[in-house]
Amino acid sequence: MNKTLLASNRSVLIFLLVLAIFTVAVTLMAQATGFGLISTSFVKTLGKTLCLCIIAIAMDVVWGYCGILSLGHFAFFGIGGYAVGMWLMYARTEEIVAASLANQPLPATAQEVSDAIGTQIFGVVGSSELPALWMFAHSLPLQLLAVLIVPGLLALVFGWLAFRSRVTGVYLSILTQAMTLALSLYLFQNDSGLRGNNGLSGLQNIPGVSAGQDWVSVWFFWASALALALAYILFAFVTSGKMGSVIRAIRDDESRVRFLGYHVETYKLFVFTLTAMVAGVAGALYYPQAGIINPAEIAPIASIYLAVWVAIGGRGRLYGAVIGATFVSLLSSWFTGGGAPAINLGFYKIVWTDWWLVLLGFSFVAVTLFFPQGIGGLFDYVAVKRNANYGPDDGSWRAEEGKPE
Amino acid sequence: MEDGCANRGLPMFKKFMLPALSSAALIAGAGAAFAECEAPIKVGVLHSLSGTMAISETTLKDTMLMLVEAQNAKGGLLGCELEAVVVDPASDWPLFAEKARELLTVHEVDVIFGNWTSVSRKSVLPVIEELNGLLFYPVQYEGEESSRNVFYTGAAPNQQAIPAVDYFLEELGVEKFALLGTDYVYPRTTNNILEAYLQDNGIAAEDIFVNYTPFGQSDWATIVSDVVALGADGKSVGVISTINGDANIGFYKELAAQGVSAEDIPVVAFSVGEEELSGLDTSNLVGHLAAWNYFMSADTEENASFIDEWHAFIGDDARVTNDPMEAHYIGFNMWVQAVEEIGTTDVDAVIDAMPGQTFPNLTGSTAEMLPNHHLTKPVLIGEILEDGQFDIISQTEPVAGDAWTDFLPESAVLESDWVDLKCGMYNTETETCVQLTSNY
Amino acid sequence: MFRALLLACALTVSAVCASAQDLQSVLQEDPALYNKPSRGTTADAVEALLASGAYDVATFLERWQGKEVWQHDDGRFVYVTDSDPYTLIDIDTGEEIGTADKGELTQIKPNAGVRGVIGSALVRFQLSDPDPARRIAALDAINRDGSAEHLEPLAASLEGETDPDIAARKERLLSLLTARFGDTTEARVEAINSLAEGVSLDSRAALNQILTTRSSVAAEVPEGTNVARIRKVDDTFTVDAAYAELASAGLAPTTVSDADVKSALTAHIVDGEVAGVPVAQMNDPAARIRAYQSLVDAGQAAPFVPPADREAAVKAHIFFDAYVEPDAAVTDAAYAAMRDVDLKVSAMQTADIALDAVSLASIYFLAAIGLAITFGVMGVINMAHGEFIMMGAYTGYVVQQVIPDYTVSIIVALPLAFCVTFAAGVAMERLVIRHLYKRPLETLLATFGISIALQQIAKNIFGTQARPLTSPGWLDGALVFNDVVSISYIRIAIFVLALIFLALILFVLKRTRLGLEVRAVTQNPGMAASMGINPDRINMLTFGLGSGIAGIAGVAIGLYAKVTSEMGADYIVQSFMTVVVGGVGNVWGTLAGASLIGFLQKGIEWFNPSNTLAAQTYMILFIIIFIQFRPKGIVALKGRAAGN
């Protein structure tokens, strides 16, 4: 199965090769495993960028391939982060509490331990009860399961409601945006039981691990690279073959596909839910590297940026999403970090920290207007065209058919 | 000073990567020759220059640049030039942690001055503790925290909130309280402490109205009406506001529109200073209150020269000064003093040398660094004037900052003492150290 | 004492020392009372002044209250005129006594509480003052902090009152005071009955004060207690709560808490066990209780109170609330009056919430009405709509910098904001949107790019600090129906503005040539073009119109809230939802959407007043679900106009 997939998608092989080389190179340059050429914080940045690539691919599948412009995928990303963050916080606090309670004359009862953990975690936000939401927080496997299940379930319910009522196009975009807004507003409340605006912090400290952050950063980098590779293969599989054709057909003309007898809603729901679950995994890998997750992370603007990355990278091609996410997020941190030299116009000095967003905004307009294929479109000029272009606005031919030349 | 900006001979690559990682706007020295020193002493400045918090934090960045420049003009520190390394965490909390790591590992700064919001501090804490950095945090905060690597130069709740409530209880005779806050950790924790404190002082639970609004709330009509309606049982009502940032503008406009005068329902704010009032027409707000440890209108010589220096540095006589600026002023000067005393910028040595340092504050008394890494600070209560300044109507003697409040049962038993107990979270009941790192 | 006085006289260089009772010497007896006054001590300080019989104490009190008294470094209290150097004026004689620099003088600033006490003391001087402003000040003081002493002077001053308004207020205050402090039961009941008429805050305050109760518990109700109600032990007032009250009143032994158990056990650890139970087993609550019971049996700890005992103890007592006011006739009358008033108040509160909801709806409508045209009629997603609102608000700000008169500047700003955003909208339509009519999702992204660029440009120009946009004086204040129902003028203005735009847009779309062409172009551009309409021009104008209205909305929103670069982002999602909920393609739909969202949000806020954030969350959830069941919105277009 995989063989045919790889054979028909050479880009998958090339991508995996590039990713492997990149991973090895970073490993060799990192402080813990290599020659210390790049700092730990930069390894973390790279690891986080890989996670962003994963959600960008997911976004590309849901938007570039299936035509659903979801402005809410960061909600799933955030839920994944919260799910894993709950365990990280709980387990770390449990260690501290156990050590502290061991000093008292009477051994602590289970109730006392759980009260102390609650006070530790929620004392920061002026509460001491461990909410019901945290009932599985003690168990890593259960929380990891939640990373997949909660986003999946939310996407399933939301998608089922939305697709069933034939909400499409711009309406659906606004609806997904409303969903992520509602979720972030809910999490902003202290009463939500996830520490409100403060969110979960100190996530980079992995309980039971005594190694320094230089090692932890590399482990997470590897995990992110592996996850990216797997996600890439998964989505390459989903978007190729007959199913890929149907998905693309839905993007190009939903009603026609429906008239042909396909159950459009099921396909859409499958893609929406699957991408949400992958986004959850990406978030679960991202936030331990970022160190903190809070509701601002899932504000609607984040999901819009996600769409921006995919559009700049090039929709309808998986590697385009990766390029877009990497390019824009690294470029953005270069510009906002003050790395770009200021331009002195004589009467006015352009400081990029101030003007980067303006540049990004307008370049985005330019990409939409003049290069709908994005950066990925550049590859079409160099690559030998083996088969037809399956990108947006160009029909949905199956691989076997090819485009009539 | 075994620090090294003296690069450990890392090859070309790091030099190549540096611009990509660095966010340094390096400030040239004052021109003096610092011959004895091979590398400048680096002072990290970790304040958002973009995003929502840029409003408040940019001013603090400028304050730090001014202080560094002034110190260089005085001959630097230990014969070395001071160099400010400014990064922009862009009001993005995870980015704070990333930039803090960058400051400590890539730029290898000797000290960091930074942060405004509590969540950004919580984000930075694990990094600072892991890498044994040194952070000076200049903003009033909710307490319930103590880190060996952090010096809190802003007010703890007992240095701002509690005295302000005392003022309401004793001087204004308020019997019913509306605690209005933006929904985040500082108002939540502060209000929790205040609720407990008020109940200790005989205010019934039903006489305390608590409301949380989102950041940037603009529709205040119903909430202000609710507050006015509190007066229906004949008790005099007061508002304790921990409303943050922009939301204050709509709130004060609505107060003015509904004709709520300071005599009827006084409002004391903990997050509204000179800077915030400059976005408002204050003629309708005269008499409402704010509690801080510093007001620009403080009538002392130190303050006058500080304001002059600030105006000269920023090149604009209309710019105001505020409380966190004073906190940075005290914090920076104490750090300089401690470094000069021990002759090194080594973090562990400085941490040991800091407690006990004293420095005159800008309001006429003296600030002392306590073993719990908090300052002694006088509490000032000011009434808003027509020109957007505050009329100081009450000023206490310096109050010792308390990391763990005495008014919540869980934290009443906790104590922080980095000198004798060497613990930031010491349980006085069980006489054990709960944890050495801080809670985040 | 005498020596102190002499000293004081010596200090007061130019004061006339003829009388030992002059003001300066009274002040010097205890200067701290006057230069660092506190609310607790001021009443005594004022009494001392009044008792001294010094000349013109009232003037001194007034100036003290007005922060006009200064203290010289040599200790003298003075009035001053001019500024630096100040001319000093003697507080007794009113004569000039030299000058002083700012450095030598300290202004005395009594705080608001002290000022209130002084004001209350001044009442007796001011009630019959010829100056009406002073009489009103006196009435304000009584209103804020009325006491029994005010009753007599107030009644006396009523006779000579010439101003009818002030007289009416005096009478009202008199009945408030009589209700609380009157001599006879009859007078009080009569006054209370007169208070039942309105819903004003002060009458409710007076009634509530009469009705103040205290909770207590006793074996039987003591003689002469004015009982308000007996508290029954039931689901809301549980046995545990009742027993806790008994215990804290000392009428029953306290229960043993887990913490008590723990500390007792800790105190009795002997050789790694407590009363025979090994410490290692103490992580089990049952083992703890077993060990504790052994301690109890050994007489080393207080026994548990079994539930049956607790219930019996609770049963043996009466829990009741008693009025502080002993006179039952008075409390009965007040209770009856209060019941009437409460009924009226809740009706009024509903009206007030409804007014707030209307106001919120009109703000949402105003913010969304531009979108109703660009998105609703043309189908163009403009994520930069919020930034057009922001541009309008900043236009207002800039105009206010140039034209200082607020009224004129608003009159100039409204059309100017329209022009600015109209131009911006036309430019955007021509340069960007025109090329993307076939790709609506990409319009969304392109306009989002413009939105973040515009936001950042505004930040670069105006800074991140909020800018003041001040409404003209005649929009200050509120339209007050009574103490419960009121609405600020600025909100009324926004409401009126929203109505005007609704009418305007309906007129343009339904009654003008342009409107006809707009509708034609949106329904079928090809057909419209073949009928001689230029679709490009129509699209451009329509988009400009929608954007221009957003600009005017920006001025209005800036007036009532804030002007920042991020203000647009606060409204954009809300506005889209308003349009979508209402139904695309119809201005009435937008109105319906705004009303639904406004009323819904206020309704949720009413149920849960302490958490505004929750109201917003639930509102959005409601919208999401609403759209599932009515995807085309409240007012759905039918037939061909509905398009696809």
From TrEMBL, chain A:
Main localization category: membrane
Domain of life: Bacteria
Keywords: Cell membrane, Membrane, Transmembrane, Transmembrane helix
Subcellular location: Cell membrane
TM ranges: 12-38, 50-79, 140-163, 170-188, 219-238, 266-286, 292-311, 318-335, 355-379
InterPro entries: ABC_transp_permease (IPR001851), ABC_transptr_urea_perm_UrtC (IPR017778), LivM-like (IPR043428)
Cross-referenced Pfam families: BPD_transp_2 (PF02653)
Membrane topology recorded in Swiss-Prot or TrEMBL: Multi-pass membrane protein
UniProt name for this protein: Urea ABC transporter permease subunit UrtC
Name of the gene encoding the protein in the UniProt record: urtC
Automatic annotation (TrEMBL), chain C:
Tree of life domain: Bacteria
InterPro entries: ABC_transp_permease, ABC_UrtB_bac, BCAA_transport_permease
Homology family: Belongs to the binding-protein-dependent transport system permease family. LivHM subfamily.
Underlying gene: urtB
The protein, known as: Urea ABC transporter permease subunit UrtB
Keyword Ligase found: no
Organism whose genome encodes this protein: Marivivens donghaensis
Short name of one Pfam family: BPD_transp_2
Keyword Transferase: no
Bilayer-spanning residue ranges: 363-385, 406-428, 489-509, 540-560, 572-600, 612-629
Membrane topology: Multi-pass membrane protein
UniProt subcellular location: Cell membrane
Alphabetic keyword roster: Amino-acid transport, Cell membrane, Membrane, Signal, Transmembrane, Transmembrane helix, Transport
Signal peptide start-end: 1-20
Main location: membrane
